Amino acid sequence: MTPPQLLIGLLSGRTLHWLAGGLLALALAAAVVSLAGNLGLRWDPFGGQARRLARAEADAVRARESAARAAAVLEAERGLVRQAAAAAARTIAAVDGVQRLELLARGAPDASQPLPPDRLARLRAHDRELCGLAPALEGCAAAADDPAGGAAALPAGDPAARRHPGGSGGELRPARGGSGSL
């Protein structure tokens, strides 16, 4: 049989019926599979959907953990901001109190008279205590190096003739080279 004769034989009535029947069966199978898919029936012989589901659940767990960590970091940062604001408010209140007391002391009727020795000793003790609490303040390093235990920090005599070693007076400033924290 030659190729043209074979082609004519395939296109004869009997062969075309088989070909049309096969195509119809294939179309019918595709329609059934499509309809089953639309109805929610799935065929997954290799478990791909289960792997995708497990991967999606693991991703969701990691995302929740990451969100919890970010929330904890944010809350910690808010706490630090609250603490810093409270410390700044305490510092401002301390500076205001010191300035108010300094103005009262400078305006007192006995401001130009020398201090009695017992009062001077009390003030020096308070100065050493403050320097122990905040050694970075200006004047504290000099008081620690002073063999008289800070006697130079509060000399006896006329307070009006002296200026505060740190500047205009009443300022809480860190010592040179200090960290600047109270």
Annotation keywords:
182 residues; disordered C terminus; 5 helices; 64% helix; mainly alpha
Topology (SSEs and partners):
Blueprint: H1 3-10, H2 13-38, H3 48-107, H4 117-133, H5 140-145
Question: What does the model show?
Answer:
- The chain is an all-alpha fold and 182 residues long.
- It is 64% helix and 0% strand.
- It is built from 5 helices and no strands.
- Residues 158-182 have low confidence and may be disordered.
Count, helices: 5
* Percent of sequence in beta strands: under 5%
Number of strands: 0
Order of helices and strands: HHHHH
**Rg:** 46 Å
Q: Cα distance, first to last residue? A: 109 Å
Major beta sheet, specifics?
Answer: none
Q: What structural class is derived from the secondary structure elements?
A: mainly alpha
Which range best describes the helical content: under 10%, 10-25%, 25-40%, 40-55%, 55-70% or over 70%? 55-70%
The low-pLDDT segments are: 158-182
**Mean pLDDT over all positions:** 77
Indicate the overall shape.
Answer: rod-shaped
